[in-house]
Amino acid sequence: xxxxxxxxxxxxxxxxxxxxxxxxxxxxxxxxxxxxxxxxxxxxxxxxxxxxxxxxxxxxxxxxxxxxxxxxxxxxxxxxxxxxxxxxxxxxxxxxxxxxxxxxxxxxxxxxxxxxxxxxxxxxxxxxxxxxxxxxxxxxxxxxxxxxxxxxxxxxxxxxxxxxxxxxxxxxxxxxxxxxxxxxxxxxxxxxxxxxxxxxxxxxxxxxxxxxxxxxxxxxxxxxxxxxxxxxxxxxxxxxxxxxxxxxxxxxxxxxxxxxxxxx
Length: 264
Hints:
- It is a single chain.
- By secondary structure, this protein is an all-alpha fold.
- The chain has two domains: 1-34 and 41-73, no CATH class; 118-256, Lysozyme.
- Helices cover 58% and strands 0% of the residues.
- It is built from twelve helices and no strands.
- It is globular, with a radius of gyration of 23 Å.
- Mean pLDDT is 74; it is low at 1-36, 60-65, 69-74, 83-94 and 260-264.
- Residues 88-107 are annotated as: Disordered.
- This is Soluble lytic murein transglycosylase-like protein.
- GO terms for molecular function: peptidoglycan lytic transglycosylase activity.
- Belongs to the transglycosylase Slt family.
- InterPro entries: Lysozyme-like_dom_sf, Transglyc_AS, Transglycosylase_SLT_dom_1.
């Protein structure tokens, strides 16, 4: 009861995390109630998955496996991504057949689930992204979307044109915000801070018209101005705007699904 009450209380203070926690934990109940008896290996696998989700659910409510509260809550964007991307996509069901399935020749080796390196980097950088987004009055999920499309959140990335770091800044652009030297752009906080300042400037210049903001971020303000304040007819720029908007929409939908709940 202590943990349930803690999450019920936490639903007021941390509504996004507790909603996701109860969704994760309650997902197992109906399946187990209606399922037939399972063999030992299947039960062991389900138990491992349930334990992992239970631990994640407690962390979402601000508690560890022993029921102790951590020193500080995870930032919202980090928590949203961690919970939304935890489950792999379900495997497609095998087509129905009247013939009995042949017995397997051998028991396959267990598969270890690993997070993609890009997701691990995104989670690691999420606190910094939250901080710089707040400082520049930007949506952190927009910064995540740009970082994903630009570099997959990779601080070591270098483009063929010479853009560098997480947000793929050109040295000349970064110099406008006091960042000198190419090596400095591979420091993730420095890169993110300069990129956020540049993005905020573009937001003000184009009145929040996101397609123009992204086009200017990719092709430069001059290209947008030369084409009558429209997205330039460059295939690369048009594809870039489409990809960032798509990723941004996906992240916003994921975060919006973490709604507050009332536990009675």
